[in-house]
Design goal:
Bound molecules: NADPH dihydro-nicotinamide-adenine-dinucleotide phosphate
Order of helices and strands: EEHEEEHEEEEEHEHEHEHEEEEEEEH
Largest sheet: 8 strands, mixed
Helix content: 10-25%
Length: 333
């Protein structure tokens, strides 16, 4: 059963597309509603592509779980994530982007017309498809993680680190993201614990060196997080060292913030059956463009970017995707 409201499309909404039975033909289909998707909508609508945008499982994307956004240019006083996404949505709609509830459940990108199934029932035939489905941060799956979400728990140091200026925080993970986030936080915070489950870091040598040489970072080797505690906000974490070994011991740390950096999962399914991805599932684009290996299919935002992952970079690549789609359609004509 679908999690979404049934599609409510009026004649007015569909004036720019043609319909035959339950098949709808569109020039430009955008999948995803974070900064990348909405920005693609703004540009595609202004280029007369009459874009249809499906919002997906989390309308507004990852930013809707961020309290304050202070690093998006143009908001000198900052803005909350949900308000910023609502503004972007309104801006896309103002120029004619048709935003809808629904998730893409299947695709067939084998032909020149791309077939996309929404909510297992509706088929869209699109001349161009812009994939802006984002990525989902991985969490440990602890109950207390959910409890303190937005009240001390974060999966983005660049977004939320500033709120922990001169405080004590912990970062979980041993990869490049964890090393990078721990180093970034060490520039703001009084102390950073890096909680690593093994006795080695997976991060690149250069990042490892940076972490090891930073006096503010203390690596807790072979530690795992059992739970978080605090009165309304995170005040500490219960850890266990050497779990399952004879010398297993419980360790508590006092912290103000708990940052997850154990990887992201790009939301590239079900497109990855046709579109090339790297070994971790990120969609590959031709460098300097948003083009995928499939003609007429473009990717933008976090689903194709494991390095920057910022709202502003996602918006920038959303703009690129709309321009690439418009040029592709012009060439076809
Ligand atoms: P990775 O998959 O590389 O690392 C994840 C880390 O989290 C590992 O150390 C892993 O431990 C740990 N981890 C996973 N699950 C758990 C768990 N349940 N409990 C505790 N720890 C856990 O993800 P990253 O996000 O760090 O990097 C993804 C890709 O992006 C990599 O290819 C990386 O090189 C790249 N990247 C590049 C950057 C750059 O070039 N500037 C910056 C950031 C990322 P274990 O090692 O034991 O498996």
């Amino acid at each position: 059963m679908s999690l979404f409201k049934p599609l409510e499309t009026s004649d007015e909404e569909n004036k720019s597309v043609s319909q035959e039975g339950d098949v709808e033909k569109v020039k430009c289909l955008i999948v995803g509603s974070g900064p990348a998707g909405y920005t693609a909508g703004i540009y595609a609508a202004r280029a007369n592509l009459s874009p249809v945008l499906y919002e997906g499982l989390q309308p507004g994307g990852q930013l809707t779980t961020t309290n304050d956004v202070e690093n998006f240019p143009g908001y000198p006083e900052g803005v909350t994530g949900p308000i910023m996404m609502e503004d972007l949505k309104k801006q896309a709609q103002r120029y004619g982007t048709d935003t809808r509830w629904g998730i893409v459940t299947d695709v067939d990108l084998s032909g020149s017309v791309h077939k996309v199934t929404v909510d297992d029932k509706k088929t869209i035939e699109a001349d161009t498809v812009i994939i802006a489905t984002g990525a989902t941060a991985k969490y440990l799956g602890l109950e207390s993680e959910q409890k303190y979400m937005g009240s001390g728990v974060s999966a983005c140091a660049t977004c939320d680190g500033f709120f922990y200026k001169d405080k004590v925080v912990a970062v979980v993970g041993g990869g490049d993201t964890a090393a990078e986030e721990a180093t970034y936080l060490a520039g703001l915070c009084k102390k950073v614990y890096l909680i690593v489950r093994r006795d080695v870091l997976r991060a690149s040598k250069v990042m490892q060196k940076r972490v090891m040489e930073n006096q503010k970072i203390e690596i807790l080797w072979k530690h795992q997080t059992e739970s978080l505690f605090g009165d309304g906000v995170v005040e500490g974490a219960h850890l266990v060292k050497n779990k399952g070994e004879a010398n297993e011991e419980k360790v508590d740390i006092k912290i103000d913030g708990f940052f997850l950096a154990i990887g992201h999962t790009p939301n590239s399914a079900p497109f990855s059956k046709f579109v090339d991805t790297d070994e971790t599932g990120y969609i590959k684009t031709i460098p300097g463009t948003s083009k995928t290996n499939v003609h007429g299919v473009f990717a933008c935002g976090d689903v194709q970017d494991h390095v920057y992952r910022q709202a502003v970079t996602a918006a920038g690549t959303g703009c690129m995707a709309a321009i690439d789609a418009e040029r592709y359609l012009s060439e076809q004509e």
